[in-house]
Give the backbone structure.
Amino acid sequence: MKELKLMKGNEALAEAAIRAGCDAYFGYPITPQSEVLEYLSREAHARTGMVVLQAESEVAAINMVYGAAGTGKKIMTSSSSPGMSLMQEGVSYIACAEVPCLLVNVNRGGPGLGTIQPGQGDYFQSVKGGGHGDYKLIVLAPSTVQEMSDFVKQGFDLAFKYRNPVLILTDGALGQMMEKVELFPQQERKFERLDWATVGKPADKEKNVITSLNLKAEAMEVINIHLQEKYREIEKNEIRYEAINCEDADYIITAYGLVARICTKAAQMAREKGIKVGVIRPISLFPFPYKAINDYASKVHGILDVEMNAGQMVEDVRLAVNGKVPVEFYGRMGGVVPDPDEILKALEEKIVGVAV
Amino acid sequence: MSMNERDLLEDKHFEQVISDESICTKENIVYEKPETLLDVSMHYCPGCGHGVAHRILAEVIDELGIQQEVIGVAPVGCSVLAYNYLNIDMSEAAHGRASAVATGIKRVLPEKYVFSYQGDGDLAAIGTGETIHTCNRGENILIIFINNGIYGMTGGQMAPTTLPGMKSTTSPFGRDVATMGAPLKITELLAQLPGTYYVTRQSVHKPLNVRKAKKAIQKGFEYQKLNKGTCFVEIVSNCPSNWKMTPVESNKWLDENMLPFYPLGDIKVPKD
Ligand SMILES: Cc1ncc(C[n+]2csc(CCOP(=O)(O)OP(=O)(O)O)c2C)c(N)n1
Ligand code: SF4
Ligand SMILES: [Mg+2]
C-alpha cells in the first residue's frame, strides 16, 4: 500500500534519509533547513540506529562527513548558503578523494548573510566547483516535496555508483512548504566492506588511504585525468530533465527547482493568450542537459531563462543554445520569488515581442 | 673514500661474517622494525621528532595487536605523509580538521581504534575549534599532538606554541607577546574539559622520554576501549631545520627552553 503523508520539504528529505538507510548525518543549524537536523535528532537513532551529530560548525560537519564517508557508509549533511560556503574546502577534498556522500543545500538569498528567504544564487557554487580545483558534484534540483524525498535515495545511489559527492540543490521555499509525498519503504542499514574504504586493514590486504594529496605534478595530473574521465562518464549517463509542453512550442522557458513550477503556470497563462510556450526544467544541473536544450532551440523562436538570482544557469542555457535563437533572462534576487504574471510579462516583452 | 675503506666494503669475508646465521638469530635481535612501520625512507629531516613518534606509535600498534582494528588520521603539516609510513588504514584531513575527521570515523565505527596525529599549527591554531569540541564531546579517540613550536612544513613561521622571544620567519625579532599573543598551552586547557579522560605531555628527545611517550600512547589506545572520553598525548618535539640547529643542539634547546614552558608529565589521569 502507498504511504502518503503531508510533509514539509525539509522533513520529507530527513525522513527519506532515514528510509534510505543513511548511517550518519552531521550538521549545524541554519535557517531555512534546521528542520532536517531537528527531525533527524528526534526520529533517526531510535528507528534505525543512525548516528546524528550536531557539529560545532559547518567546517567540522563536512570534515566529519569526509571521515565517516571514508568508511564506505552512507553519510550526509545539509546546510544553507552561508554554511555551504564554509564547507567548500572540505567538499573539494571529498571530491578529489572520491568519497561518496550526500550534501544538501537549502539555498537562501545572498550574498553575505543575506536573507532566510529562498534563493538560487548558489548555482555557480554548486555546479562550477565552489571549492578549489577542478572537480564536479552531481547536482540534483528537486521541484516538489516528492522529489525532496526521492532524490535522497537516488542521490545515495549515484554517489556510490560513481564514488562522487552528490548535492541536492533546493531552496528555502521548497524546504518549508508542505505537500503530499509518497514515502518509499524503509531500506535496511547494512554494512558492506568496500575495497577502497578505511575500516581497518585486513592482514591479507594492502592498507587503504583516503587522500587528495600527491606532491608530484605528473601523478596529480593522472588523478585529475581520472576525475575528468569520470565526469565525462557521468555526463553520458546521468542527464535528467523534464520538458513540459515543448513539442509544439514556439517559445521556451528554462528554469530549475521551484521556479520551474511557477514558470509552468506562466506558460499555461501564455497558452490561454494563444502564445505556445513550453518549459524545460533541468533536473540534473551537473550533468547539464545541453543537448536537449540545443535540440529544442532549433524548433523555437526564443528562450527565456528565469531564476531567483542575477542570471547564473542562463550561462549554461546560452552555451547549450549556442546562438541559434535569442536567450533572455528574467530574475528576482535577494529572496524574492517571482510570480507567474511577471514571468509572462517578461516573456512577452523580452522574447515574444522581439523574436522574428 | 680511502683505499682501505673500499677494500673493507668489498671484503667478501667481512660481509659473510656479519650475515652469519650463527649471529643473526632471533634471540640476538635487540632492535627491529615494527610491522606497522613500512620499510621506506621517511622524508623527515635528520633528527626530527616526527620519525621517533611514528616509530613508537607503530610499536604500540604492533604490541597491542590492533593493526587491523585501527584507523589513523594524518594532518596537514610535516606529517601529512604519515600514511606512507604506517601500514594501517588512514585518512588525510584538511589543515586543522583531523579531529573532526576522526570523529566522523569513530562515530560510525565505534568498535575500532581511531587516532589523529597533528602538529601545533594544525591542532592549536587553524583547528582549535575542532580540537576543543572534539575533546569536549569526549570523542573516544586518541589525539597525538606534536608540539615543535613552529610551522615546520611551510618553512618555519610562528606557531601558536612558539615561545616568547623565539624567532621564526614571521616573528623575525622574536615573538612579541604584546602584539602576537602568548603561546597557547592548549593541553592544559583541554585537561579542564570533562570530555577528556587522559591528558599527558611527553617528549621524545631522550631514550627515557621515548619510553615514557610510548607508554602514554599505549595507555591512550587501551583507554579507548573503555569509552570514557578523549585521550590526548602531547609530544614536545623539535624542528632542527626551522630552528636552524643541528639535531643535538635542537634537543638541548628543547630541554632548556621548551620544557620549562611546557613541563612534562601527566596533566589529567583517570580517577578510577
Ligand atoms: C587551509 C590551509 N591553510 C594553510 C595551509 C598551509 N600549511 C600547511 S602545513 C601548515 C602548518 C603546519 O604546522 P604544524 O601543524 O605545526 O605542523 P609541523 O609541520 O610543524 O609538523 C600550514 C600553515 C594549508 N595547507 N591549508
Ligand atoms: S621541517 Fe622540522 S618538523 Fe618538518 S621534518 Fe624537518 S625538522 Fe621535522
Ligand atoms: Mg609544528
Summary: The mean pLDDT of chain B is 93. Residues B 76-79, 95, 119-122, 146, 148, 150-154, 159 surround thiamine diphosphate (ligand 1) (CB under 6 Å). Residues 31-268 of chain B form a domain with the Rossmann fold fold (CATH 3.40.50.970).
